[in-house]
# Entry
Amino acid sequence: MIKFNIPAYTGDEIKYIKQVIENNSYCGDQEMTHRCERIIQDRFKVPKALLTTSCSAALDMSALLCNLNDNDEVILPSYTFSTSASCFALRNAKLVFVDIRPDTMNIDEELIESAITNKTKAICVVHYAGVACEMDKIMAIAKKYDLKVIEDAAQGVMSTYKGKALGSIGDFGCFSFHDTKNYQMGEGGALLVNNEQYFDQSENVWDCGNNKKAYKSKKVSEYSWVDLGSSFLASDINAAFLLGQLENLDKINDDRLKSWNHYYELLKPLADENLIELPYVPKECKHNAHMFYIKTKDNNEREELIKYLRDKGIQTASHYVPLHSSKAGRKYGVFFGNDKYTTFESRRLLRLPMYYQLNYDDIHRVVEEINCFYNDHK
# Structure
């Protein structure tokens, strides 16, 4: 069986977990948390990073920091994970879904401005598969209309747009360290705060709405409840596991890129015959090989290929059902304009096995079986 995903493990994680146990310091905002946050800040050139229990928690924090009120509107793509939307719906904001580009599967930046109303307060972009959205255009629109920008960079750790790390461009960036991501701590994430205006408030929101960080740094004489918030802190034992991975950022990234490039080279002949489509990466973007996907002719062909590969012992996966077509999406949002690409493209995308230290023989076997499938269907 070739598995779809095997969570990354470098061997250094256990060393740091033992240190936490020896120090009897398990809760959040301790040594391992601080070390992880410093690596994120230094490597990705962000002024503040706060380790969280998940990317969903980081998104929840960003929604709180945007100070959304009832019926405020947030523009976002429908092709994304549910928490990209639910974080704003929880603040009673109206979700305005915009169509995607078929080449990158990212929000179509050319459609955003026409979706803006006097109720629009924020734009949430999702960097699908670690490939950046067109951030120059999006940031220019946000500046023109005084809107906040939240980058859902759950899949984008180590990816860049014009040399800038994903998550470092908007007001807030959100990372995921779930065990399906390139770097993982089982469950975890980080909020990147790029707007100086929110440095202090983000610390309060992060820790139950209390100003405990200010108290620890002796900015105040005692700490108290000063804002809305929750316990968004990751435990130090989880941070210890993540530290073993963050210290191997390049090693893991290089390995995944080699696997991604190998897939691309081996599958290009099928793409040249127009039997499948391969991922597209704009020239101004550097991606992190978060996933490798192909696009089939249509949904029926994708489902046949999934079954064929499963019968051959190869795990694959489709991805998001567009949110605007879901029960909650219909309740909390609307789709702006025409759904020209979101549904159609989502129903033909197939994700192939991709993880750290994926065996080259397994890549060849996956490609061989895909070739066999299409030889039988010619």
Q: What stands out?
A: The mean pLDDT is 97. The longest helix spans residues 249-272.
